[in-house]
Amino acid sequence: MRTEPLARRTSLRLSAVLLLVGQLLYIAVTQLHTGGDANDHHAVFAAYADSGFWTLVHLGQFAGMAILLAGLLALSFALDGQSRTARWAGRFGAASAAVTLALYGVLQAVDGVALKQAVNAWASAPAAEKAARFASAEVIRWLEWGVRSYQDFALGLALLLFAVAAVRTAWMPRPIVHLMGLSGLSYLVQGWVVGSVGFSRAESIAIVLAFVLDVSWMIWLVVVAWRMQDSEASSLGR
User: Whole-structure pTM over 0.85, yes or no?
Assistant: First the structure.
Protein backbone atom coordinates (compact mmCIF):
# COMPACT_ATOMS: atom_id res chain seq x y z
CA MET A 1 0.00 0.00 0.00
CA ARG A 2 1.50 3.30 -1.10
CA THR A 3 0.96 6.66 0.58
CA GLU A 4 -0.37 9.33 -1.75
CA PRO A 5 -1.67 12.92 -1.47
CA LEU A 6 -5.29 13.19 -0.39
CA ALA A 7 -6.42 14.91 -3.62
CA ARG A 8 -4.94 12.18 -5.80
CA ARG A 9 -6.41 9.40 -3.68
CA THR A 10 -9.85 11.06 -3.76
CA SER A 11 -9.71 11.49 -7.55
CA LEU A 12 -8.59 7.91 -8.00
CA ARG A 13 -11.37 6.50 -5.84
CA LEU A 14 -13.98 8.61 -7.59
CA SER A 15 -12.61 7.55 -10.96
CA ALA A 16 -12.50 3.86 -10.07
CA VAL A 17 -16.10 3.83 -8.79
CA LEU A 18 -17.46 5.78 -11.76
CA LEU A 19 -15.64 3.58 -14.27
CA LEU A 20 -16.83 0.30 -12.77
CA VAL A 21 -20.41 1.45 -12.08
CA GLY A 22 -20.72 2.94 -15.56
CA GLN A 23 -19.36 -0.17 -17.26
CA LEU A 24 -21.52 -2.59 -15.25
CA LEU A 25 -24.62 -0.46 -15.83
CA TYR A 26 -23.90 -0.34 -19.55
CA ILE A 27 -23.43 -4.12 -19.74
CA ALA A 28 -26.59 -4.80 -17.72
CA VAL A 29 -28.79 -2.48 -19.76
CA THR A 30 -27.38 -3.77 -23.04
CA GLN A 31 -28.62 -7.27 -22.14
CA LEU A 32 -32.17 -5.85 -22.44
CA HIS A 33 -31.58 -4.59 -25.98
CA THR A 34 -33.73 -6.27 -28.62
CA GLY A 35 -31.68 -9.09 -30.18
CA GLY A 36 -31.44 -10.66 -33.60
CA ASP A 37 -29.11 -10.61 -36.60
CA ALA A 38 -28.40 -6.88 -36.75
CA ASN A 39 -27.43 -7.04 -40.43
CA ASP A 40 -30.67 -8.84 -41.44
CA HIS A 41 -32.55 -5.59 -41.69
CA HIS A 42 -36.00 -6.94 -42.54
CA ALA A 43 -36.05 -9.26 -39.53
CA VAL A 44 -34.34 -6.99 -37.05
CA PHE A 45 -36.32 -3.89 -38.01
CA ALA A 46 -39.54 -5.83 -37.35
CA ALA A 47 -38.19 -6.80 -33.92
CA TYR A 48 -37.20 -3.19 -33.21
CA ALA A 49 -40.69 -1.98 -34.15
CA ASP A 50 -42.20 -4.45 -31.65
CA SER A 51 -39.90 -3.36 -28.81
CA GLY A 52 -41.67 -1.59 -25.98
CA PHE A 53 -38.56 -0.73 -23.97
CA TRP A 54 -36.45 0.77 -26.75
CA THR A 55 -36.27 4.30 -25.38
CA LEU A 56 -35.53 3.22 -21.79
CA VAL A 57 -32.78 0.83 -22.90
CA HIS A 58 -31.02 3.50 -24.93
CA LEU A 59 -31.34 6.06 -22.17
CA GLY A 60 -29.82 3.51 -19.81
CA GLN A 61 -26.95 2.87 -22.22
CA PHE A 62 -26.30 6.60 -22.49
CA ALA A 63 -26.30 6.94 -18.70
CA GLY A 64 -23.85 4.06 -18.34
CA MET A 65 -21.50 5.47 -20.98
CA ALA A 66 -21.69 8.97 -19.49
CA ILE A 67 -20.77 7.63 -16.02
CA LEU A 68 -17.91 5.59 -17.48
CA LEU A 69 -16.50 8.57 -19.38
CA ALA A 70 -16.82 10.77 -16.30
CA GLY A 71 -14.64 8.18 -14.60
CA LEU A 72 -12.01 8.55 -17.32
CA LEU A 73 -12.04 12.32 -16.90
CA ALA A 74 -11.60 11.91 -13.13
CA LEU A 75 -8.71 9.54 -13.81
CA SER A 76 -6.87 12.32 -15.64
CA PHE A 77 -6.67 14.22 -12.32
CA ALA A 78 -5.34 11.16 -10.47
CA LEU A 79 -2.43 10.45 -12.82
CA ASP A 80 0.97 11.67 -11.73
CA GLY A 81 2.02 13.45 -14.91
CA GLN A 82 5.68 13.05 -13.95
CA SER A 83 6.85 13.55 -17.53
CA ARG A 84 5.81 15.94 -20.25
CA THR A 85 4.68 13.01 -22.41
CA ALA A 86 2.47 11.66 -19.62
CA ARG A 87 0.90 15.06 -18.97
CA TRP A 88 0.04 15.64 -22.62
CA ALA A 89 -1.19 12.06 -23.06
CA GLY A 90 -3.53 12.57 -20.11
CA ARG A 91 -4.83 15.86 -21.51
CA PHE A 92 -5.44 14.45 -24.97
CA GLY A 93 -7.01 11.35 -23.40
CA ALA A 94 -9.45 13.57 -21.49
CA ALA A 95 -10.25 15.47 -24.70
CA SER A 96 -10.85 12.20 -26.55
CA ALA A 97 -13.16 11.03 -23.74
CA ALA A 98 -15.18 14.25 -24.09
CA VAL A 99 -15.41 13.71 -27.87
CA THR A 100 -16.53 10.13 -27.20
CA LEU A 101 -19.41 11.34 -25.03
CA ALA A 102 -20.52 13.82 -27.72
CA LEU A 103 -20.42 11.12 -30.40
CA TYR A 104 -22.29 8.69 -28.16
CA GLY A 105 -25.01 11.28 -27.64
CA VAL A 106 -25.35 11.57 -31.42
CA LEU A 107 -25.34 7.78 -31.72
CA GLN A 108 -28.21 7.40 -29.26
CA ALA A 109 -30.16 10.17 -30.97
CA VAL A 110 -29.78 8.28 -34.27
CA ASP A 111 -30.34 4.77 -32.87
CA GLY A 112 -32.55 5.45 -29.87
CA VAL A 113 -34.87 7.96 -31.53
CA ALA A 114 -34.53 8.29 -35.33
CA LEU A 115 -34.18 4.58 -36.13
CA LYS A 116 -37.05 3.61 -33.85
CA GLN A 117 -39.37 6.13 -35.50
CA ALA A 118 -38.27 4.97 -38.95
CA VAL A 119 -38.90 1.26 -38.28
CA ASN A 120 -42.25 2.06 -36.65
CA ALA A 121 -43.25 4.01 -39.76
CA TRP A 122 -42.10 1.13 -41.98
CA ALA A 123 -43.97 -1.51 -39.95
CA SER A 124 -47.25 0.42 -40.04
CA ALA A 125 -47.00 1.73 -43.62
CA PRO A 126 -49.35 0.52 -46.36
CA ALA A 127 -47.86 -1.91 -48.86
CA ALA A 128 -47.32 0.78 -51.48
CA GLU A 129 -45.10 2.78 -49.11
CA LYS A 130 -43.16 -0.02 -47.44
CA ALA A 131 -40.23 -0.05 -49.87
CA ALA A 132 -39.61 3.68 -49.45
CA ARG A 133 -40.02 3.49 -45.67
CA PHE A 134 -37.62 0.55 -45.50
CA ALA A 135 -35.04 2.41 -47.57
CA SER A 136 -35.29 5.38 -45.18
CA ALA A 137 -34.74 3.10 -42.18
CA GLU A 138 -31.68 1.57 -43.83
CA VAL A 139 -30.19 5.01 -44.43
CA ILE A 140 -30.56 5.76 -40.72
CA ARG A 141 -29.02 2.36 -39.90
CA TRP A 142 -26.00 3.13 -42.07
CA LEU A 143 -25.69 6.53 -40.39
CA GLU A 144 -25.69 4.65 -37.08
CA TRP A 145 -22.80 2.50 -38.37
CA GLY A 146 -20.79 5.62 -39.16
CA VAL A 147 -21.37 7.35 -35.82
CA ARG A 148 -20.75 4.13 -33.87
CA SER A 149 -17.52 3.56 -35.79
CA TYR A 150 -16.10 6.97 -34.92
CA GLN A 151 -17.34 6.75 -31.32
CA ASP A 152 -15.45 3.47 -30.95
CA PHE A 153 -12.34 5.03 -32.47
CA ALA A 154 -12.54 7.97 -30.04
CA LEU A 155 -13.02 5.71 -27.01
CA GLY A 156 -10.20 3.41 -28.09
CA LEU A 157 -7.88 6.38 -28.56
CA ALA A 158 -8.84 7.77 -25.13
CA LEU A 159 -7.98 4.47 -23.42
CA LEU A 160 -4.68 4.17 -25.25
CA LEU A 161 -3.73 7.73 -24.30
CA PHE A 162 -4.61 7.12 -20.66
CA ALA A 163 -2.51 3.95 -20.77
CA VAL A 164 0.43 6.02 -22.05
CA ALA A 165 -0.14 8.57 -19.28
CA ALA A 166 -0.36 5.84 -16.64
CA VAL A 167 2.64 3.80 -17.73
CA ARG A 168 5.07 6.02 -15.78
CA THR A 169 2.77 6.45 -12.78
CA ALA A 170 4.44 4.99 -9.72
CA TRP A 171 1.33 3.65 -7.99
CA MET A 172 -0.37 2.14 -11.07
CA PRO A 173 0.28 -1.62 -11.38
CA ARG A 174 1.57 -2.43 -14.87
CA PRO A 175 -1.07 -5.14 -15.56
CA ILE A 176 -3.79 -2.47 -15.24
CA VAL A 177 -1.99 -0.35 -17.82
CA HIS A 178 -1.63 -3.33 -20.16
CA LEU A 179 -5.30 -4.31 -19.83
CA MET A 180 -6.35 -0.71 -20.43
CA GLY A 181 -4.23 -0.57 -23.57
CA LEU A 182 -5.65 -3.87 -24.85
CA SER A 183 -9.15 -2.57 -24.19
CA GLY A 184 -8.35 0.51 -26.25
CA LEU A 185 -7.17 -1.67 -29.12
CA SER A 186 -10.38 -3.73 -28.94
CA TYR A 187 -12.44 -0.56 -29.39
CA LEU A 188 -10.33 0.42 -32.39
CA VAL A 189 -11.09 -3.00 -33.88
CA GLN A 190 -14.81 -2.46 -33.23
CA GLY A 191 -14.65 0.90 -34.96
CA TRP A 192 -13.01 -0.61 -38.04
CA VAL A 193 -15.39 -3.58 -38.25
CA VAL A 194 -18.56 -1.50 -37.79
CA GLY A 195 -17.40 1.02 -40.37
CA SER A 196 -16.62 -1.76 -42.85
CA VAL A 197 -19.33 -4.42 -42.49
CA GLY A 198 -21.71 -3.20 -39.81
CA PHE A 199 -22.82 -5.08 -36.70
CA SER A 200 -21.24 -8.42 -37.56
CA ARG A 201 -20.17 -11.45 -35.50
CA ALA A 202 -16.59 -10.15 -35.49
CA GLU A 203 -17.80 -6.91 -33.91
CA SER A 204 -19.77 -8.86 -31.29
CA ILE A 205 -16.62 -10.80 -30.33
CA ALA A 206 -14.69 -7.54 -30.02
CA ILE A 207 -17.47 -6.11 -27.80
CA VAL A 208 -17.36 -9.09 -25.43
CA LEU A 209 -13.56 -8.90 -25.32
CA ALA A 210 -13.72 -5.18 -24.47
CA PHE A 211 -16.26 -5.88 -21.70
CA VAL A 212 -14.02 -8.55 -20.14
CA LEU A 213 -10.90 -6.38 -20.35
CA ASP A 214 -12.71 -3.30 -19.00
CA VAL A 215 -14.27 -5.04 -16.02
CA SER A 216 -10.93 -6.69 -15.20
CA TRP A 217 -8.84 -3.51 -15.04
CA MET A 218 -11.62 -1.47 -13.46
CA ILE A 219 -12.09 -3.93 -10.57
CA TRP A 220 -8.33 -3.98 -10.10
CA LEU A 221 -8.28 -0.17 -10.06
CA VAL A 222 -10.98 -0.13 -7.35
CA VAL A 223 -8.84 -2.45 -5.22
CA VAL A 224 -5.75 -0.27 -5.73
CA ALA A 225 -7.67 2.92 -4.92
CA TRP A 226 -9.07 1.58 -1.65
CA ARG A 227 -5.74 0.12 -0.52
CA MET A 228 -3.94 3.39 -1.11
CA GLN A 229 -3.10 5.32 2.07
CA ASP A 230 -3.15 9.08 2.45
CA SER A 231 0.38 10.45 2.82
CA GLU A 232 -0.92 13.37 4.86
CA ALA A 233 -2.73 11.10 7.32
CA SER A 234 0.30 8.84 7.51
CA SER A 235 2.60 11.72 8.33
CA LEU A 236 0.28 12.88 11.13
CA GLY A 237 0.24 9.42 12.61
CA ARG A 238 4.05 9.23 12.89
Answer: yes
